[in-house]
Amino acid sequence: MTRPETTTVVLLHALSLDSSMWRPQCQALEQRGLRVLAFDQRGFGGAPLGAGPPSLGAVAEDLAAALDAGGHGRVVLVGSSMGGYVAMQFLRRHAYRVDGLMLTATKASADTAEAAARREGFARTMLDDRLRHELIATTTPLLLGATTRAERPEVLARLLDDVTAASPEAVAWAQRAVAARPDSFDVLRATTVPALVIAGAEDELIPPDEAQRMAAALPRGRLVTVPRVGHLPPLEAPDVFTGALTRLLDDIAGYRTQPEGHTC
Asked: Kind and range of the H or E element at 213?
């Protein structure tokens, strides 16, 4: 079942990556005749960083402007890690445009003071030419599950290349924007469209209870845990992730075609 032409699947990438992380999903969705926008966030993939202060709200408004400029109407938001934070900010501001939601490797809670301080330290270290390489080398493997690291070294090699190529200024800006984000459980509780939360069973960065809490907060939310996968399910298990996304899109299509007044 294909989506109406007026609906666009928006893919929002993880921190330090860009829209190229979604290549398998783009190909699969376009083969189904769907309209797809893999969106590069500020400072990544050639998108300008700009001079504004760090703010995920600003990134959400960038997305809204890009949708308007491209003639996109309603959307299904798919957010990975930082992309999930952006998706929740877009929902906060433009919920009327959203037909469905898929979140992975993200959380709706705000950072604690300690977590925000760690992000600030990360940002400062990224901007230090003497320390950046070691930071990338030690933290990037944590984005993948132990199984992926052990059995698919080519995935880690590609990830290290992509993270190393990212603008240090953009990474620092994004870390500070993420640290300043608000709690978004109120947004999820108000999101009544079909929604899916994907968790990697080997995610070392997001505790399992965060995914469970998000799925429970979403009125039409479901949780799927993918085994042998860490923080980046779209890269570590692209076929599994894409299959879950296409099933969600079919659910959304059925939801939108229900007769008025129908209840489940």
From this structure: helix 208-217
Domain-located, residue 138: no
Q: Read off the pTM.
A: 0.94
> pLDDT digit string (tens) for 163-195?
999 999 999 999 999 999 999 999 999 999 999
Domain CATH code at residue 11: 3.40.50.1820
Helices and strands of the chain, counted as H and E runs? 12, 6
pLDDT at 259 over 80: no
Q: Does residue 148 lie within any of the structural domains? A: no
Three-class DSSP category at 252: helix
Domain ranges, residue 21:
7-109+182-256
Q: Closest Cα to residue 199, out of 230, 177, 175, 174?
A: 230
Residue 21 in domain: yes
Are the CB atoms for 18 and 45 separated by under 8 Å? yes
E-strand stretches of 70-229? 74-80, 98-104, 195-200, 221-226
- Amino acid identity, position 243: G
* Residues near 214 by beta carbon (within 8 Å), at least 6 away in sequence: 103, 106, 107, 108, 185, 188, 197, 221, 223
| Burial environment of residue 93 by CB neighbours within 10 A (0 to 12, 13 to 18, 19 or more) | middle
Q: d(Cα 252, Cα 248) in Å, to the nearest integer?
A: 6
Amino acid (1-letter code) at residue 44: F
In a domain, 196, yes or no: yes
Give the Cα-Cα-Cα angle 168, 171, 174 (nearest 5 degrees).
150
pLDDT, tens digit (0-9, with 9 covering 90-100), for 204-257: 999 999 999 999 999 999 999 999 999 999 999 999 999 999 999 999 987 654
What's the domain count of the chain? Answer: 1
